[in-house]
Amino acid sequence: MFIHEDSRRKLIEWSGGMVSKALVAKHDCIVGDHHHRNKEERFLLLSGIARIAIIGSDRQESVVAPREFIVPPNTYHLFDLAEGSILLGVASQEFDPNDEIKGEPC
Questions:
Q1: Is residue 88 part of a domain?
Q2: 25: domain CATH number?
Q3: pLDDT tens-digit profile of 31-76?
């Protein structure tokens, strides 16, 4: 199990076939703002509100839990989460810093 905490959020990641993570927003914050060349991710906004959710060219505002998001490889994604929101994620691969590219794909 991997736990990473910063001023925005607490992230808990574990592996059991697929790589899973839970993110708890400590305050209003933006997470994501990147894309992956190889990894597919699925997210479940379990509780709270995503003030903005962007998956590729799809932008949604004031998204209330529960809501599922599917992020194929090479697809930009960003979540602007309200304080206390919980976002669960499942990925097809473990974290690879070389496969997390800031911003949108060219």
A1: yes
A2: 2.60.120.10
A3: 999 999 999 999 999 999 999 999 999 999 999 999 999 999 999 9
Does 66 map to a domain? yes
In a domain, 100, yes or no: no
Q: How many domains does the chain have?
A: 1
pTM for the full predicted model: 0.82
C-beta atoms surrounding 33 within 10 Å: 14
**Does residue 46 fall inside a structural domain?**
yes
The answer to whether 93 and 103 are in contact (CB under 8 A) is no
Contact 83, 28 (CB under 8 A): yes
Q: What is the pLDDT of residues 82-105, one digit of tens each?
A: 999 999 999 888 778 888 888 877
| CA gap 36, 66 in Å, rounded | 24
